[in-house]
Amino acid sequence: MRVALIGDIHANLPALDAVLAHARQHRVDAIWSVGDLVGQGGFPDEVVLRIREEDTLGIAGNHELKVLQVPQKKKRSPETTFSESKSALFWTYDSLSADSREYLRALPQEIRLEIERKCILLTHGSPASNEELLGPDTPQKRLRELAQMADVDLIICGHSHRPFKCKAGNVWFINPGSVGRPIDGDPRACYGILFIHPGRVL
Question: What is the pLDDT of residues 142-199, one digit of tens each?
Fold first, then answer.
């Protein structure tokens, strides 16, 4: 079994289409998303629809949670106080169909799976917070703390937009990077493929 690991699409439909085409060429059997489908890009509803068409297993990122809070924020904030980031957030909410908003509301903040006797956690930031940034420079001490907290064999995360793979104790951490807003010096969309064989997960 081959699983495409995607995250941080940020409403970038052309980048998502490129990743899905590449994943199909590599004959992936499933797609797992670690959140931030929307936010900052110009195609929020189209990205949600494409993700749903692909029958993606996914979780909510911090941007989904922020977008879904827009109705409450609109009541508290007069239009004259809108910042650029708040205006973008409101635009994203207004650009989503009612069905897409309901889909985002239904997304869990984490998913635990058991495959080939391995426990896998999908989370956006870290097991401690959906806004914690994990990357190749995260200290081993912190990764071991998070590994103990999660009590799994593999943690797949996003949020930092920085692809990395490392082991802390007996737990692997994988971040597939960002589909829509890479910040690793390479402007191309970034994702990963997880290989699941009998008795092992790579």
Answer: 999 999 999 999 999 999 999 999 999 999 999 999 999 999 888 999 999 999 887 6
Where would I find the H helices in the chain?
13-25, 44-53, 62-68, 70-76, 84-95, 98-106, 140-150
* DSSP letters for 139-188: -HHHHHHHHHHHTSSEEE--SS---EEEEETTEEEEE---SSS--SS--S
**What is the arithmetic mean of pLDDT over 48-62?**
97
The whole-angstrom separation of Cα 44 and Cα 41 is 7
Q: What is the pTM of this model?
A: 0.93
Residues 160, 21, 187, 86, CA torsion sign: negative
